[in-house]
Specification:
298 residues; alpha/beta; D-Maltodextrin-Binding Protein, domain 2; eight-stranded mixed sheet; two-stranded antiparallel ribbon; 12 strands; 24% strand; rod-shaped; WH-like_DNA-bd_sf; DNA binding; LysR_HTH_N
Length: 298
């Protein structure tokens, strides 16, 4: 196998026309240069240089290796530049997972800012409502994911960065007896028919835990896995619902939205990153942008 470093020494000799000149350029002794060329000739199995007066010139084999050394040198320089860009955050790729209600208020402004700061970083942005994205983060298949988790949870291999607490609101049909209240006691909804607005998981658990703390278990009569449909069911008079503030958007004209107390249900939203993730500037920038979007509020 040919030694790439020795090929670069040969290239210097051919370019300068002499062993002595190449030694001065490389910072080697002439003897060291001659030894490197001799070792390369042994690897190649043929002579690479021939003497011409006081200088040297390449044999056909030496010229061939010099041309390839030049190509390799350019490729190494390009690789070093690409690596420097990657380490500086100028290039690279981020795989990001999010859930729908966090898209507009959190992810959209954060991605826009990150792209402005790191325009050559590619972002693979994927909506993931059904599956838990933490395994993807833990295994390095995703660089960041927005998740809802109980406060204080510490999943193995993942670091959770708190972004915001998203309170649930009571969504009632227009004309409901409690529609005139500014704040609704959760226990006052105990005997109501309920419209489900969440699929099984951390978001639904946040509702059920709050209801349990208020002393009841909600009686779901309609199941819905998206907040817009749930509002439509409530507007039709099928029941009441709890919907997180970020999921309300523009409320349906047939419903009223009220704050809840006793207790106030909350979704705790985090950005999840791998515990051993390399300190990519673009990833740090995205985290900072998400924090700022969270603090800016809906």
């Amino acid at each position: 196998m040919l030694d790439v470093r020795r090929m670069q020494v040969l290239r210097a000799v051919v370019s300068s026309g002499s062993v002595t000149a190449a030694a001065g350029f490389l910072g080697y002794t002439p003897s060291a240069v001659s030894q490197q060329v001799a070792a390369l000739e042994k690897e190649a199995g043929t002579a690479l240089l021939e003497r011409v007066g006081r200088g040297v010139r390449p044999t056909p084999a030496g010229l061939l290796l010099t041309e390839h050394a030049d190509i390799i040198g350019r490729q190494v320089a390009e690789t070093e530049a690409a690596l420097a860009d990657l380490l500086a955050g100028r290039t690279g790729r981020l795989a990001v997972r999010y859930f729908a209600t966090a898209g507009v208020p959190l992810m959209a402004p954060a991605i826009a800012r990150m792209r402005a700061e790191h325009p050559r970083v590619q972002v693979e942005l994927k909506l993931g409502e059904a599956d838990d994205p933490l395994p993807e983060v833990r295994e390095g298949r995703a660089d960041l994911a927005l998740v809802v988790r109980p406060r204080g949870e510490e999943p193995a291999g993942v670091r959770l960065v708190h972004l915001l607490d998203d309170p649930y609101r009571a969504v009632l049909p227009v004309g409901h007896p409690l529609a005139g209240e500014r704040v609704v006691d959760l226990a006052a909804l105990a005997d109501e028919p309920w419209v489900g607005s969440e699929r099984a998981g951390s978001c639904l658990d946040a509702q059920l835990d709050a209801c349990a703390a208020a002393g009841f278990s909600p009686g779901f009569v309609v199941e819905s896995e998206d907040h817009i449909t749930a509002q439509g069911f409530v507007a039709a008079g099928l029941g009441v619902s709890l919907i997180p503030r970020l999921g309300l958007g523009a409320p349906h004209p047939g419903v009223v939205v009220r704050a809840v107390r006793g207790p106030e249900p909350l979704r705790i939203i985090y950005a999840a990153v791998r515990e051993t993730a390399s300190p990519q500037p673009a990833l740090r920038g995205l985290l900072d942008a998400l924090r700022d979007a969270a603090h800016a509020g809906p």
